[in-house]
Amino acid sequence: MASTPVSPAHRRKILRVIFISLLLDLISFTFILPLFPRLLEFYRSREAADASPHSLLNRILLGLNAYKQSFSRTISDRYDVVLLGGALGSLFSMLQAIASPFIGSLSDRYGRRTALLWSMAGNIASVALWLAATDFRTFLASRVVGGLSEGNVQLATAMAADISNAEQRAATMAMVGACFSIAFTFGPALGAALATVQTVAANPFATAAGVSLLLILIETLYLYLYLPETLPSYRMSQPADVSVSTSTTRAKATSRTNSYLLLNTTHFIFILFFSGMEFSLPFMTYDLFAYTSSQTGKLLGFMGLLASILQGGVTRRLNPLLAIQIGVTACAASLFLLGRLTTEAGLWIAAGLLAITTSTVVTGLNTLSSFEAAEAERGGKLGNHRSWGQAGRALGPLLFCSLYWWAGREAAYGIGAAGMLGVSGLVFGALKAPPITSESQ
Questions:
Q1: Residue 259, number of CB atoms within 10 A of its CB
Q2: What is the DSSP-derived secondary structure letter of residue 73?
Q3: Are residues 419 and 273 in contact, defined by beta-carbon separation less than 8 angstroms?
Q4: CA 43 to CA 84: how far, in whole Å?
């Protein structure tokens, strides 16, 4: 359904606010990613010094070790902390899968701006807990609060759809995707640099946490001062007509090109395989080429930089279905190559293909999903769409790494490539471009 028209000047203003705020949010979010191994080593050594075998962290580590020892292959102890980081990542994604539909529905009922500001309050609490986390329990609480409250990405997507017509939608969604690529290119490096500056003896990561909190506070103030409501005024001013408006627009949406079951299933299966591969990449580069964390970081930085260039220059001009088709094809080729490569040159070629995937698939799926949702239900529908993807992200690393350790690299990436070919079957055989995008392209 077409969005309520807004003037070009007003639209540019809102897009600027969305871009700046989302970039601040994602840079703050990515600070912690390269710090996980050192963070968890810090908490493990701290609890070992306290001689508390029944502590929460020690019980979790015992469970992970029992899981690791169930495989026939010997798995190095250096992966203990990586496994724990993966478990925390899966927990965060699963909490996001639970919370996203509720956050989206609240934005439909009370407005995007209100929902986003409440989400920011949760983000502030989460980062404040990290700043104060001198023990693992407090750090875990910060991840739980963050997982349940983080709604910036889905609400930014909904707001971008609110103010974009069919011709503008793909370019607008590519802008949201570019924020991810830029943040994941520079945020982790900045977080790692800040972690070398120690300001609080009880928490050596307080500097990184403090700057992350400062960015979140600046973002919240910026949103409060400059973000207008993007939900159409009739939806905000006529709550009594919610059931009529929603049922009418839902009837129109279900007559559109792609069902939400198809879009959500495609999103889930794609993220399931892609996130599993993504999480296993540091294991593979270490096993095959003895890469250090710095070398792996350069590889990931190359992927992020290339993806941001592609999103800004190519993806924004593509029909969303074509973008998805290109992305899943590149991903299948990359997984096939990763299972058989023997040289570093092959690794960097595979990374380039994954950058193409990163810059296209999720952006295209979000665009198609936004076309199928009416204005009155867009927040909830996009929240459900994100929920399916986050569920895949919660399960993918566990399943893929289990397969990697049980059957080996060749089998794991071969099955991943076969799974991505299955996703390609859905994308090429079932998904269709909405008529309005076909006409506009």
A1: 13
A2: S
A3: yes
A4: 12
Work out the angle at residue 427's Cα, subtended by the Cα atoms of residues 421 and 432, and round it to the nearest 5 degrees: 165
Helix axes 80-110, 36-49, angle to 10 degrees: 110
Q: Angle between the 166-194 and 320-338 helix axes, to the nearest 10 degrees?
A: 40
Length of the chain: 441
The 8-class DSSP code of residue 165 comes to: -
CB 180 within 8 A of CB 157: no
Cα gap 185→275, rounded to integer Å: 17
Per run of 10 residues, the mean pLDDT along the chain (length 441 residues) is 70 94 93 82 77 74 79 69 79 94 93 95 96 92 94 91 85 86 85 86 89 96 95 52 41 64 96 90 82 77 88 88 96 95 93 94 92 85 94 91 83 94 96 68 48
Q: What is the sign of the dihedral through the CA atoms of 132, 26, 113 and 245? A: negative
Q: Where are the alpha helices (DSSP H) in 319-408?
A: 320-338, 344-372, 378-407
CA-based end-to-end distance of the chain: 17
Q: How many CB atoms lie within 10 A of CB 105?
A: 17
Write the burial class of residue 205 (CB in 10 Å: 0-12 exposed, 13-18 middle, 19+ buried): buried
What region, left, alpha or beta, does residue 111 occupy, with left being phi > 0 and alpha being psi -120 to 50 degrees?
A: left
pTM for the full model? Answer: 0.85
Query: Is residue 137 exposed (0-12), middle (13-18) or buried (19+ Cβ within 10 Å)?
Result: middle
- How far apart CA 285 and CA 278 sit, in angstroms, is 11
